[in-house]
Amino acid sequence: MSKNPDERRILGELLEVEKHEDSMICSMVKLIETNQKLGEKINRLTWIMLVLTWITLIISIPNTLATFFGIPKVSEMLKVEIIATSMIISIILPVTVLLFVGSDLRKMLKRSRDERTA
Fold first, then answer.
1. For the chain, what percent of residues have pLDDT higher than 70?
2. Is a pLDDT exceeding 70 seen at residue 83?
3. What single DSSP character describes residue 70?
4. Burial 34-44 (b: 16+ CB within 10 A, else e)
5. Prediction pTM value
6. Cα torsion at 31, 32, 38, 39 (round to 10°)?
7. What angle do CA 11, 15, 20 make, to 5 degrees?
8. Is-contact 62 89, C-beta < 8 A?
9. Could you give the 3-state DSSP secondary structure of residue 2?
10. How far is CA 105 from CA 38, 39, 74, 98, 100, in A?
11. pLDDT averaged over every residue in the chain
């Protein structure tokens, strides 16, 4: 190869372009890794929010009924058995609904996680 200044300049420019492409590819790989880690963290936070929502729902319905039955006029009109039965039903009903809905949500999240890893 000759030592022509034009050839040397062109080779220098090509080398700079190659370095720039290499740095861009490295940046893209880092970005993909960061997006995957962020997606995993979002999935974990989604599960935490789902569990907290379940706990809130399970606690809020019986609490509302207990507040309602705590009103003196209402508690005088109703028997203790009716109050206890309605409290038990108010606990069991949301738990069963959430178990069925929760199993569907777990399946959906598992499928989405499997699709991302595949």
1. 94
2. yes
3. T
4. eeeeeeeeeee
5. 0.50
6. 160
7. 150
8. no
9. coil
10. 20, 17, 39, 10, 9
11. 80
Contact assessment for residue 86 and residue 65, using Cβ atoms and an 8 Å cutoff: yes
Run of H or E residues at 75 = helix 72-77
Residue found by looking up tokens 């080398």 in the block: 15
Residues in the chain, overall count: 118
**Which whole-number Å values give the CA distances from 65 to 7, 16, 85, 89, 99, in the listed order?**
86, 73, 11, 11, 22
* d(C-alpha 70, C-alpha 52), whole Å: 26
Model confidence at 65, pLDDT cuts 50, 70, 90, reads: confident
Domain range for 63: 5-117
How many domains in the chain? 1
